């Protein structure tokens, strides 16, 4: 039992760093999507993911990294990754970071429900409560009104749903396949599908945007890999309360990059999210 708890604690830590990387990725993508197509952005992201999988396989001396226990599930998982990533990138083009994250906050609840249905995971009452407390914290920060639910919010809602499916499938395949194997197929399927489409919409990358492209590729590769590791070590329902740290980072990066000062409700909501996450980690250590 102690071993299981220790592994899940490691999984939670990787999830936290994964969400931090995703937050930095979102800041960069919101700028790039104005000037470049979603297909071009996805192609470059998955190209770097593919290269990272090769590096990790070499580092771990895994010469059979391409062997999988279930090719169909790996392809399905990779396609879900492309769809959810594309939905969120498009959402950032038409909506603000805050609105997108407020809608995307429904992803943890979707994951928990799908984990119970598809993975037969047992979710304690405490975890359910922590997830909904975290969601209350998000609502406290965002105070969403009717303006959030415009036609473009469909992108964010779809992204949240496919994130839930992606995490469930990742958790399923991670029980048998190596982490670098999952990363390999995610990158390979991504560059094949997006490579064929991005040729049509390709725009020359200027020197001014080159650092942003490298930053986008780096943070996505790291975030995707850390998420795979997290889901290989912890139950999908266990790491979901930490999904709300995305909102915590959104407040910080909003101030750093846009000069937005958090108001009273944002501070209160952030404290609710952080406290729910810390309490979940404390319960897991026990």
Topology:
Elements lengths: L1 H34 L2 H22 L11 H24 L2 H8 L2 H12 L6 H18 L10 H22 L4 H23 L8 H24 L2 H4 L5 H14 L5 H22 L1
Description:
With about 290 residues, the chain is mostly helical. The protein contains twelve helices and no strands.
Please outline the major beta sheet.
Answer: none
Radius of gyration: 18 Å
Strand coverage percent: under 5%
Quaternary structure annotation: single chain
Instruction: Give the terminus-to-terminus CA distance.
Output: 11 Å
Segments where pLDDT lies below 50 for 5+ residues?
A: none
Count of β-strands:
0
Give helix % range.
over 70%
Quick structural overview:
By secondary structure, the chain is mainly α. It has twelve helices and no strands.
